[in-house]
């Protein structure tokens, strides 16, 4: 029996999930973050094992064949997945946050129905596009692909337990923290 609760955080690329999660983790040091594996190349500031485990496509496909993922998905021409062993080990220590896409969230909902799913929405598609472009680290074809995928991803919010709009960082973080506290049975 695990000690913690599993929380899934999803949202379109560029919605600010990473920033929201960093702030949530700063304020809730009892939470564990499950690091995903990916086949995409690291961004300049990313460190292997901190933001992601960066693996080759061949290694990722071997991990799929070996059943090593709690969930995985392929999007934007790259694989992303949560190593099962790592997530289960972290649940023994306390509550765990997963930063995953809707297809992966659906896999988690199937295998761990007690998990709480939170979808982070952008204030608008225009703002999402601005955020993606302001990163200055994504090629135009990838931006277009991410914007098309974002439409589908946002449609998936209807089956999440909670939807939070990231229109203002502090408010969004406070709302996510309130959800975590409620789901963990803590008083506000």
Task: Give a description of the structure.
With 188 residues, the protein is α/β, with parallel strands linked by helices. 43% of the residues lie in helices and 22% in strands. The protein has 7 helices and 9 strands; from the N terminus they run E-H-E-E-E-H-E-E-H-E-H-E-H-H-E-H. It has helices at 17-27, 57-65, 84-93, 102-111, 125-134, 140-155, 169-183, and strands at 6-11, 32-34, 36-38, 52-54, 69-75, 78-83, 96-99, 116-121, 162-165. The chain has a 5-stranded parallel sheet, sandwiched between helices. The chain has a 4-stranded mixed sheet with strand order 4-3-6-5. Strand 5 (69-75) and strand 6 form a beta hairpin. The radius of gyration is 16 Å and the shape is globular.
Search tags:
43% helix, 188 residues, 4-stranded mixed beta sheet, alpha/beta, 7 helices, 9 strands, 5-stranded parallel beta sheet, globular
The parts where pLDDT drops under 50 for at least 5 residues are none
Alpha carbon gap, first and last residue: 26 Å
Percentage of residues in DSSP E strands: 15-25%
What's the Cα radius of gyration? 16 Å
* Biggest β-sheet strands, sense, barrel: 5 strands, parallel
With strands numbered from the N-terminus, the spatial order across the biggest sheet is 2-7-1-8-9
The ordered H/E elements are EHEEEHEEHEHEHHEH
What's the helix count? 7
CA-based shape: globular
Number of strands: 9
């Amino acid at each position: 029996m695990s000690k913690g609760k599993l929380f899934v955080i999803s949202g379109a690329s560029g919605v600010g999930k990473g920033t929201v999660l960093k702030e949530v983790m700063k304020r809730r040091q009892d939470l564990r973050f499950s690091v995903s594996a990916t086949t995409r190349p690291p961004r300049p500031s990313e460190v292997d094992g901190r933001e992601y485990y960066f693996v080759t496509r061949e290694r990722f496909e071997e991990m799929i064949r070996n059943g090593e993922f709690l969930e995985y998905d392929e999007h934007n021409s790259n694989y992303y997945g949560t190593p099962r062993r790592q997530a289960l080990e972290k649940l023994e220590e306390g509550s765990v946050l997963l930063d995953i896409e809707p297809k992966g969230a659906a896999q988690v909902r199937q295998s761990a129905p007690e998990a709480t799913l939170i979808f982070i929405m952008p204030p608008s598609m225009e703002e999402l596009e601005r955020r993606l472009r302001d990163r200055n680290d994504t090629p135009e074809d990838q931006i277009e692909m991410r914007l098309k995928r974002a439409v589908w991803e946002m449609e998936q919010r209807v089956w999440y337990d909670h939807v939070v709009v990231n229109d203002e960082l502090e408010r969004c973080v406070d709302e996510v923290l309130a959800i975590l506290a409620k789901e963990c049975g803590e008083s506000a």
